[in-house]
Amino acid sequence: MTSKMKVIGYWGATILIALETLAGGVTDLMHGRTDLFSGPRVVDVVTSLGYPVYVLAILGIWKIPGAITLVVPGFLRLKEWAYAGIVFELTGAAASQAVRGRPNDVIAPVVLLGLALASWALRPPNRMLGAVSPNNSGGRVAPIKSDTG
After folding, report:
1. Do residues 14 and 67 make contact, with C-beta atoms less than 8 angstroms apart?
2. In 1-149, which residue ranges form alpha helices assigned H by DSSP?
3. Would you give per-residue pLDDT tens digits along the chain (149 residues)?
């Protein structure tokens, strides 16, 4: 994959997953009381899966800064946590739908999971924890020395 194609792929996937995560966070906090989306309200989906409504507040509060973290420069360790949170949330959504016997509702979280993983895998070195680039230490942490050698 050429460098230019990799950058385009990274930013395309990152912008899409960040926008979806941001919109999802706002929708969660508003309990689906927006005209942004059609379909069942998020409260109805969450409660039909057996979760309490307050889970939406927890998810919504974390999704918004996570989405922002993905697109702003720096904050490399926080980016790793944002990606992890998005992966946990989307795999949980897919598993919850599958366990409830809704195979068609597994598709959207799996597709979004693919976008999140593509964004993570296509990151340029200056957005990777532990990577080294000329303009950025990459957030490297010095290795811990062991007493055994």
Report:
1. no
2. 3-29, 42-48, 54-71, 76-99, 107-121
3. 689 999 999 999 999 999 999 999 999 999 866 555 556 789 999 999 999 999 999 999 999 999 999 999 999 999 999 999 999 999 999 999 999 999 999 999 999 999 999 999 999 999 998 875 555 544 454 455 545 54
- The 8 Å CB, 24+ separation contacts for 111-120 are 112/17, 112/20, 113/87, 115/13, 115/16, 115/17, 115/20, 116/13, 116/17, 116/83, 116/86, 116/87, 116/90, 117/87, 118/9, 118/10, 118/13, 119/10, 119/13, 119/14, 119/17, 119/70, 119/83, 120/83
The count of other CB atoms within 10 Å of the CB of residue 19 is 13
CA angle (77, 114, 81) in 5-degree steps? 15
Task: Give the residues across from 133 on adjacent strands.
Answer: 136
CA dist 96 and 129 (Å) reads: 31
